[in-house]
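INTERNAL AUDIT FORM
Audit reference: QA-55
Scope: verify that the stored structure record matches its stored sequence.
Auditor: D.O.
Record contents follow.
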Amino acid sequence: MAAEQSNYKAIDPLLTEAVFGAVPSGMSLLAETDIIDEVTIDQGMLSGTLWIDQRAAFMGNEGDGDASRAPGAPFREVGDEAPFTETYLVRNRFGRSASIPKEHRRQSQLPYDLVERRAMQLERSRLVRRERSLAGLLQTEANFVRALDCAGTGAGDFANVKTNAGGIAWDLAGATPFSDMMLATELFIEDNGGIRPDTVIVPLRMAGALARSAEFRGYFGDSTAGLAAGGHPIPIPAVRDLIAAATGVSAERVYMPFGRYRTSAEGAATLAEAYAFSATTFGLYKLSGSDGTASGSMIPVSPVAAIRVFDAELSGFVRWDALDGTAHNVAADDFYHDKLIPTADGGSTTTLGMLITDCIS
């Protein structure tokens, strides 16, 4: 009995590795990608401090006048824009289990182990939980200094920062999504002292609208060869390449999520579901290159919009037999914190991400 209880508490590395490698892809969950930098904490450091560099410290000192030094003159000291701190708190964000009667496993004629099948179901649930966490972090307007309505005309909406005509949703006639993306990139760079975005999120349904956009089709191929002629949509890979061209972001970091999750309760008569990422919101971000490395409870971080702080020791799968001998059990734990990195000390928003909302009607 003591051994069983001990096994219940210990992460099973073989099962964890098998499940992590076996869960099929195909739902395009950003949780399966390296979209956000992940910092693995030292053992036991579930809370600690992020040491965040201010970008002003790396923008030179031209405002202080002549930087030259006369022969024999002393050096002029450069001041230090001291880093500021934020607290992280790693806690359990997913902890669920599944049970299989021993008789079912023994009688099964399926070509796979039922315990591992249940573990793979848990892994998919874990990834969906991470997907929703990422969506909440990266698509919440209150997290970003700039969150512009694509078609709005208010003071804070995209129409009032455009250099071309009006604000028009990208799936409507007269829309200029390629030009809008170029302008958004210019605004991002100006907001961040010359730092460029390195990540774009364009949900797949929005990408489909862009494939039918007259402006996007005008940049693709040669209509005399039948490419994008007659109002035909362009291929999604070409849409990704054009988004990369408009924003300067590598095509490999133009993400098009389309993962969905169940919103109805387990066992409900009718299955209800929704997209994890809103299909109408376009996002520009600086998410890679944080250089974050845990040192005890301290993590120094270069300017990015967000990071994930992760505890690998506590996260994974466990398996055990019921104490009464009737069932096999498997469970999954996931300990992390998806953390927004504010632009300024004491702030709650970042300029290293920008949203354009209501991009499709």
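Auditor finding: record pair retrieved intact. Residues 86 and 346 are 8 Å apart (CA to CA).
Action required: none
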